Amino acid sequence: MSWNNIKITILKELRGVVRDKKSLHKLILYPLIIPLVILLFGLLFDTVNESTYTLGVNYKLSSEEKEIIKQLDYIIVKNCNNIKTCEDYYKDNKIEGYIIRNDNKYTIYTDTSQNSGEIILSLANSYLDSYSKMLGTKYLMDNGMDPNMVFNNILVDSKSLNKEDTNIMSNMIFSLVISYITMIVVMVCVVVVSDATSGEKERGTLETILTFPIRSSELVIGKYLATSFLSFIGGSIAYFLAIPSFLIGKEIFTSYEEITFTTSFLSILLSILVLLFTSLLASGICMALSGKAKTYKEAQSSLQFVSILPIIPYFLSVMEVSNNFFQLIPIANCSSLLNDIVINKIQFQSFGIIIFSTIIYIICILKYISLQYSKEETLFS
Amino acid sequence: MLILIVINNIFKEFIKVNDSGKKVSFYADDDISFEVHDGEILGLLGPNGAGKTTLLRMLAGIMRPTSGEIVIGDMTYDRDAIALKKNISFLSGNTKLYKDISPVELLKMCAGYYGMDKDIIDKRISEVVKRFDMESFKNQRIGNLSTGQVQRVGVARCVLHDPHYYILDEATSGLDIISSQVILDFIKEEKDKNKCIIYSTHYMEEAENICDRVVLIDKGKIIAIGTPKEIEEKTKTTNIRDAFFQLIKEK
Question: Cα(A66)–Cα(A85) distance, rounded to whole angstroms?
Fold first, then answer.
């Protein structure tokens, strides 16, 4: 094995990517999407959280009712005098729902097929429950009775078992971004491996290199290390953009305030290690799968499904499916491990098993691609 | 004259899918045997699909014969592939150069692969740049060069490590007269240095002018071997083109 030949091949591949505008742009653009996603979703969630809903009423609010409404966030009451005006306001989207009072009967009109209708129904119920309770309390007190014996004879309180998941949407975005970091590793692999293998065949330069005194194993290892390095760089850029973006996001957006993740040295070190192993594995898988492709495009289409692997744990967690079985799926398990490291939920036993199994996968794949690339069907397909 | 390249009963089998979708085997090269001598230019002539390129790829060590033996000097690819490739140059009309690098960068990369001594690389590159008149474009990207300039870079790549064996496959294909002449001159110069050259072409007149002997191939089989004059006498024709057609007709 000549390390000189491997070194020259690595430099050749790196130079090829750096000088090819398309590949270079992809290497930089894929990670740059991350801060944009974080910024956009932060703005979106904050806007949703700050939204207010307007409720129409056909009566004049008492001072007690006004006080209750004031205590309920997100609701504004608009007086519309009669049913006709309420209906017109609703049609003109000036209100999201309305209450019609007839003597002592309150009827709530909302469209519960819409999200805003559901919310306004809940808010109107809260207001009327509070008002009813207030009237009851006043009556009991006027008659010398203790309202607590009627309304507070039992005390009810609720607490979330998962303290970190207070904001589900922002935590979902966080997990999605972390999965996307692994996805970038694979996406960069798909681009650079397609170019280094089938692209080289298509351009006719593979025949040139085969005339040199180089073993096919040296050529394969050189290409493998170069493509692994490039995908590792892509993944690292994504990681070092994502973590500071969330740190800044926590300062700017209220929706991100409750996201918890760690930025300890150990976490960063382990994350980088996981990205390195993911790159080595993804590059090997891509080289093995693109071996027989004749053209760059053919290779890319044969590798597209690999890009989905990192996102599997995310979708399974969203669907609340038990996540044990995907520990066996290469790349998907690395994506899951990276997420656990970043949110400081790492189990070192699981870390050891995944890294060990990844090393075994890498060794097997390297043996396979060395064998594959020594065959004429692969080199001249 | 020393015999430098010996090709013994070479067969090369390929599998292809026929019109009815079935896999069938065929021989691109079918029992090919000949020798090449020191200081000789041996022409390999035949129409497209005759098996020339496959044979030359096997001679260059980038394909393996299904059966048979290739001995170059006293080495074979089975035993001494790396050492053998260091002393061979393969130039083909099909092989392309990296477009994103300059001729000098390409030559440095080649020198690295050939394991040339770092102290002599720059000097050797300057020599070949001068020899093939590449000074004006040596630092431009290959993708921006004309076809003739690219072919000169390809030839410079071949001579850089000063090999003893040249395997040239359709090296002048698609080139204009001036660019072709650069390659033909280079072949003659190397012959004068007692190098061993196998030159494949489908330009019969070109082969007749520069080759000492020719091997005529059709459908993977040798149909004639000898000097152009010997083949013309044997077929009672006046040029190698007519001789080729005569032999095909007889077959």
Answer: 21
Q: Which residues of A179-201 are buried (b: 16+ CB within 10 A; e: fewer)?
A: bbbbbbbbbbbbbbbbbbbbbbb
Q: Which two tokens stand for residue A44?
A: 């979106």
Q: Which residue of A has its CA nearest to B92?
A: A208
Give the residue numbers in A contacting B (CB under 8 Å), as ranges: 2, 4-5, 8, 11-12, 15-16, 19-20, 203-205, 207-215, 376, 379-380
Q: What CATH number does residue B144 fall under?
A: 3.40.50.300
d(CA A27, CA A17): 9
Cβ A30 vs Cβ A187: under 8 Å: yes
pLDDT average, residue stretch A159-181 = 73
Nearest CA-CA partner of A290 in A281, A279, A298: A298
Tally the domains of chain B: 1
A203-239 core/surface letters (b: 16 or more CB in 10 A; e: else) = bebbbbbbbbbbbbbbbbbbbbbbbbbbbbbbbbbbb
Q: Is residue A123 part of a domain?
A: yes
Which residues of B fall within a CB distance of 8 Å from A212? 85, 110, 113-114
How far apart are the C-alpha atoms of A92 and A85, rounded to whole Å? 10
Q: How far apart are CA B186 and CA A31, in angstroms?
A: 50
Confidence of residue A165 (pLDDT cuts 50, 70, 90): very low
- The parent domain of residue B83 ranges over 39-64+78-250
Is A96 within the bounds of a domain?
yes
Give the number of other Cβ atoms within 10 Å of residue A249's Cβ.
Answer: 22
Give the DSSP H or E segment for A75: strand A75-79
Domain-embedded: residue B22: no
- Chain B residues whose beta carbon lies within 8 Å of the beta carbon of residue A208: 95-97
Higher pLDDT, A164 or A254: A254
Chain A positions touching B62 (Cβ under 8 A) are 207, 210-211, 379
Q: What is the band of A377 on the pLDDT scale with cuts at 50, 70, 90? A: confident
- Per-residue pLDDT of B17-76, as tens digits, reads 888 888 888 889 989 999 998 889 999 998 888 888 899 999 998 889 999 999 998 889
Q: What is the number of domains present in chain A?
A: 2
User: What is the DSSP track for A155-191?
Assistant: ------S-GGGGSHHHHHHHHHHHHHHHHHHHHHHHH
The helix or strand, by DSSP H or E, that contains position A153, with its residue range, turns out to be none
In a domain, A352, yes or no: yes
Beta carbons within 8 Å of A165's beta carbon, 6+ residues apart = A171
Residue A98, domain extent = 52-151
Of the residues A127, A151, A175, the one at which a domain ends = A151
Residue A216 domain-assigned?
yes
Closest of B190, B229, B210, B195 to residue B37, by C-alpha: B195
pLDDT tens string A335-369:
888 988 988 888 888 888 889 999 999 999 999 98
> How long a stretch of residues is chain B?
251
Across the interface, which of A205, A211, A379 has its CB nearest the CB of B85? A211
Instruction: Look at residues B110, B96, B94, B90 and name the one whose alpha carbon lies nearest to residue B199.
Output: B90
Residues A144 and A184 in one domain: no
Among residues A151, A180, A202, which one ends one of the domains?
A151
Residue A100 and residue A124 in contact, taking contact as beta carbons nearer than 8 Å: no
- What is the pTM for the complete model shown? 0.81
